[in-house]
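FW: tagging you since you asked about this chain on Friday. Here's the raw sequence from the shared folder, copied in full. Didn't touch anything.
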Amino acid sequence: MEIIEEIEFDCPDWAVIPIEYRDYSGLTEEDKRILFDWEHSLKREDATWDIVFTSDTNEFNAHPEFGKPCATVKARIVYTSMK
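HL: got it, structure written out here
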């Protein structure tokens, strides 16, 4: 598989566990909807995607990738070719 694109973003800290481990317990229905809608927007016909988290955090971010202002973790969306 070949990396075809990487996009850096600020992930809400409340979304790290659900994204990494698919554990949605503790999320509100609104948070689940926001997360599922965002993940759906990542889909591409020519690639698969994965999220890679870093250790860089921000205690308060007024403009996270999705959701309301909150603490965030730097992350990258990595798209790889399906060939």
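FW: The longest helix spans residues 29-41.
HL: agreed, and Helices lie at 16-21, 29-41.
FW: great, closing this out.
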